[in-house]
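Listing S7. Sequence submitted for prediction.
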Amino acid sequence: SYSNAVAMKEDLLEEGYEIFKLWQTSQGRYWVSGRTPPLYIDNQLFSEWVDRMCWLGYVNDCMFDGWGMLVENPGDDDDDDDENDPLQFDDLL
């Protein structure tokens, strides 16, 4: 419902997300689209983030449909050990 989508949007804003838009599809579903501020993340933090998004979806009677990721290689000019560089994570809802 619209009120659930608004509640989800508000919860995401409280978490520091940038919200791009809230809209209704031709099938009557409401969508909230946004992203986090840039995050450094590892497997454990990513798993915790997914759990959090699913929990917010549950408490707002919404469905978490996935994410996107922007990967950058910060400070790569100092060594050749790319596999240990942190990932820059940007999610899209």
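Caption to Listing S7: primary sequence and predicted structure tokens for the chain studied. The longest strand covers residues 18-24. The radius of gyration is 16 Å.
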